[in-house]
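User: I'm curious whether this sequence folds into something compact or stays loose and floppy. Could you predict its structure so I can see for myself?
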Amino acid sequence: MESRIATELGGAFGPIVFLRTDTCPSDAISPKEGARRGCVMGFISHVIRDRKTAVFTKETCLCAGATAGLCFGNGYAAAIGGVDTFAAFFSYGLESAKDPEMYQKFCDRMPENIRRKFLEGERMHADFETAKAFINNEVTVIPPISGKYAVFKPLEDLLDGEIPVSVIFTVNPVELAALMHLAGSLPGGNGLYASSRMSACQALGSKVLQESKKDVPNGVLGMTDLAGRGHCRNVIPNEYMTYAVPWEMFLAMEAVAPKSFFQTMIWEKFKE
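Assistant: Here's the prediction. I'll summarize afterward.
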């Protein structure tokens, strides 16, 4: 599928889509079998830049956040110590742990090159209680959806009959402003959801799914997660963000794009 919006933006990166399916695409990149730890964003960054296809299953999401982010359900409960372990990790690590001995065992299972991160914590929240409330109220409330495979691929490779969860743009500040302007022109004035506490993959998947249930959904700003961004920095320049919208919202934006500010002198100034 071609995108009128992408043509008008003329950006460095074309849009990609996230969908769930029971058919595994051929020639897709994916984590190696038996991989213990990592970040799906490293794979997704190559979908964005190199126009590859990436595929994940519930068993190859590489972390609990991605299990939730790719709509496979609550991956946090399966860890040693369950949600409490990740509430500690998202705050001050071992210092925040309600059961330090159990949390130390969790850290000891991590590869040596990243163990320090788990001991120190990601510090997205100022305390354990705030982190736990965020997990329970924002992340784990999204039920899993059908489809064995979570697939990210270029929009131009979308097949007839495939319906994505989200369409994802990777944009600089001007392109982001343009997308927000276009979304805001729709009936109801679609806004923007942004949270630095949300994993980069959740801003592409589960949060967009959550927005799709609203009468007036928001676009979701991503790459506000420094940990996830760190896995992309050698592929996607630092000044780029992701902007993901539900499929129906994307179609509505596409419909108004041919007669929008893109055809006015306002946008012409940014093409000079």
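Summary: The chain has a mean pLDDT of 93. The chain is about 35% helix and 10% strand.
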